[in-house]
Structure formats: structure tokens, C-alpha cells
Write a structure and sequence with these properties.
By secondary structure, the protein is an alpha+beta fold. It is built from 16 helices and ten strands. Helix 7 packs across helix 8 and helix 14 crosses helix 15. It binds iron/sulfur cluster. Iron/sulfur cluster (SF4) binds next to helix 3 and helix 12.
């Protein structure tokens, strides 16, 4: 069940203060997935709760990361969507009919992308229409048997609760009436060549996206008193076949992804609790202030992470958090062992720097606080010397 509530004024004020003039981000599937990768980091958790767009806060500094789609990919996506909708959605009807074993030739297509304001009020209205139509068509409390003809909701909007705040998610299409079920569809413009996607990561992200919609669709049905099992465990991806734009449909079971996303959603920190626990000094305001010199902005970022703490994991941070270059640079400057990730950092308790790791590896005497890590480091150093003799030793051996 969803649990929409607005933050109390104190909580809302605290979050606005934390965000300051930092660009705001709307919760969407991509951001949820990115946050899932870094959710153990306190700085990332506060930024997510305050809806800070981490990919844009450091814009204009050398630590800004190059996130975003290429203009070419965006153009291809727009062209592919237009192709699917051309001539009364003829191509979309064709691929749904061919791929779902249900005749969509005369299906009613309800386009929810048109006739609504392109803002939050419009999304809320579309979510209401989506919910009503899903319940009516799939078989509402009155117990109708479902639609006589299949129906497609183009641009369905699903409401969700993310950490205690309402959010809206827009699905490309919902095909209703496929064997009495509803199936979510996502359109992606990257090609599938000879049956294989050219980008496995993009495929995984698209399936996660569609699985999120399926989960939210189930909750929407349940809220309306309709059996959530009406929402299919499988989703469809509509992609171009090979190098052209001719659409083809791929149906995939995403039951395990739905379960994982359910766990993820329940792990999102509660906005109210995060706001209450965030010290009053924490704000991204100066970090995002383009009028300030870069050094001042990066110092302000350092102050935020000093107060909140961070859990740096190279792989997930670099792909999922817009602060990764700034965090990596700060750790690099301090030669902090955390630069190598939390697993390595945990294995080096009491060791202040990577330079000290090297010294202990070469047998330097350890202080009491370094002692637990010093023994394995010295052993590793000896092993390394045996396996990788220095250039001088190698020369002596080959002479
Ligand atoms: S990049 Fe920095 S702020 Fe972002 S998740 Fe990693 S450690 Fe946390």
C-alpha cells in the first residue's frame, strides 16, 4: 500500500535548507537505481532525501562528472517514439499484436501525454486517470470481466511513495487485456542485433525500469480493490531491430526484479527522519553556488562530507553518484586508504594513509594502533618482494 504524506513544515524547511540553491531532482527509476548502489553512504542518503541532483551540484567545477545522454541518442529516441505513434500508433499496434498473441489492431489507445499540463499537477491528474482506467478495465470492485477489446494507455503515470514523499513515474505504455492481464511496456531506441542487445547494462536498466512500473501498477490495483495479480510478472521492451528503426518486441519475466525493487523501495530512508537527523550546519547551498570560486565550493563540499561521513566504493560511486570525482580527489589528496573502497579500508584499521601502508609493507615498526594491520601487511610485503623482485634484482639474476 502507498503511504503518501507531506513532510511537516519543519521537515520541509530542513530539506530546503539542506538543498539550498542546489538543483532539485525528481525521483525516478534511474535515480532510485543509482541511489540503491550507494545507499550506505550518509552523504548520498541526505542528498537523496533532500532531492539534490548530485549530477549538477558541481556544475562549472573541474569535479563535474559527464552524466547524461548524447544528443545523438536523444534524437534517435525521439525518432523511434514518433515512429511507434505515427498513423494512429500503427507500428505499436503491430508489434504488440505480433509479440503478445493478442490482436491490438483495433485496440483503444488512450494517449495520456496530451491534454495535461507538463508539470506536477498534470502528472497527478494523469496518475488519477491511470488508476481509474486500470481498475475499470482490468476488472474493478464491481467485478467486471475485463475489457472486451484490449486497451493501451500511452504515457500511463503511476504514483508512488519514495521515503515518505509522493512521486510520479511515467510508463511508456500499458497494454491491458492480454489474457486478462495488464503488461507494462518500455520503448528503447538502442538496437537489438541478431536477437542480442548491444548494451547489456542498458538492457538491465530498462528491465529494472519496467519492473518498477509493474510493482507500482500492482500497488495501484490493490489500492483500488482490484486483484494485483492482474498485473503481469512479465514486461515488454520495444526496440529497433538491427541497425534500422523497425520495431520489435521482447517479452521478459521480471518477477525477481520486482522483488528486488520492492526491497529497495522499502529501504529508501524516510525523508522526515533524515531531515530530523541532519545537523543544522549541513547544506549544499555553497557547493552549488556558481558565483563562488571552485576552491570555496569544493571546501564547502568537504565540510558536508566531514559532518555526514561517506562510504566510498569506487565502482558504485563512479557510476551512480555525481560527487564521485570530488570524493575521489579528496581521498587521493589525503592518500586515504578509503580510496580503494570500504573493504580495503576495513582491512586497514588504524592506518592513516596509503604511504603508511607501503612503509608497513616494507617492515617499518608499527605503532600500537597500527599493530592489527601491520602483521598481514608485512607478510604481504614479503610475498610481493618474492614474486615481484625489483628491477635491480632482476638484472642481477639474468646476468
Ligand atoms: S561519491 Fe561520495 S558522496 Fe557519493 S556515494 Fe560515494 S562516497 Fe558517498
Amino acid at each position: 500500500m502507498t503511504r503518501h504524506h507531506q513532510p511537516d513544515p519543519a521537515g520541509a524547511n530542513a530539506l530546503a535548507r539542506v538543498r539550498g540553491q542546489a538543483p532539485q531532482a525528481r525521483a525516478n527509476v534511474r535515480r532510485l537505481a543509482a541511489f540503491a548502489s550507494v545507499h550506505s553512504c550518509p552523504t548520498a542518503a541526505v542528498a537523496f532525501a533532500a532531492r539534490v541532483d548530485t549530477s549538477r551540484v558541481l556544475a562549472g567545477t573541474s569535479m563535474e562528472m559527464p552524466f547524461g545522454q548524447s544528443p545523438f541518442a536523444i534524437g534517435r529516441g525521439v525518432a523511434f517514439e514518433a515512429l511507434l505513434r505515427r498513423y494512429g500508433h500503427a507500428e505499436l499496434r503491430r508489434v504488440l499484436t505480433a509479440g503478445l498473441d493478442t490482436d491490438f489492431t483495433f485496440a483503444a489507445i488512450e494517449n495520456l501525454r496530451e491534454g495535461y499540463q507538463p508539470n506536477r499537477a498534470g502528472l497527478r491528474m494523469r496518475a488519477t486517470v491511470t488508476r481509474t482506467r486500470m481498475a475499470e478495465i482490468a476488472g474493478g470492485p464491481a467485478g467486471s470481466a475485463g475489457p472486451a477489446e484490449p486497451v493501451v494507455l500511452d504515457g500511463a503515470v503511476l504514483a508512488a511513495d519514495i521515503g515518505g514523499l509522493p512521486a510520479f513515474f511515467e510508463a511508456d505504455e500499458m497494454a491491458i487485456g492480454v489474457g486478462g492481464q495488464i503488461i507494462v511496456g518500455e520503448n528503447k531506441s538502442w538496437p537489438v542485433v541478431d536477437g542480442k542487445p548491444t548494451d547489456e547494462d542498458a538492457l538491465g536498466a530498462a528491465l529494472d525500469q519496467a519492473a518498477t512500473y509493474a510493482l507500482l501498477g500492482r500497488r495501484t490495483l490493490a489500492d483500488s480493490g482490484v486483484d494485483p495479480a492482474c498485473m503481469s510478472d512479465s514486461v515488454v521492451l520495444v526496440t529497433p531491430r538491427n541497425t534500422g528503426l523497425a520495431p520489435s518486441l521482447h517479452r521478459q519475466d521480471v518477477a525477481s526484479r520486482i522483488r528486488r525493487i520492492e526491497r529497495l523501495l522499502s529501504a529508501v530512508p524516510d525523508v522526515q527522519e533524515t531531515a530530523a537527523a541532519t545537523p543544522a550546519s549541513v547544506t549544499f547551498d555553497a557547493v552549488a553556488d556558481k558565483a563562488l570560486p571552485e576552491t570555496v565550493r569544493l571546501e564547502a563540499f568537504g565540510e558536508v562530507t566531514d559532518v555526514l561521513g561517506r562510504v566510498y566504493e569506487p565502482a558504485s560511486c563512479l557510476t551512480s553518484c555525481g560527487f564521485a570525482w570530488a570524493c575521489r580527489q579528496a581521498l587521493f589528496s589525503d592518500a586515504d586508504p578509503a580510496l580503494l573502497g570500504s573493504t580495503v579500508a576495513r582491512a586497514l584499521p588504524g592506518i592513516a594513509s596509503l604511504g603508511r601502508v607501503a612503509e608497513l609493507g616494507q617492515g617499518a615498526p608499527a605503532s600500537p594502533v597500527e599493530a592489527p594491520a601491520a602483521v598481514p601487511l608485512a607478510r604481504a610485503g614479503r610475498l610481493y618482494s618474492e614474486v615481484m623482485p625489483t628491477a635491480g634484482e632482476q638484472g642481477r639474476r639474468s646476468a
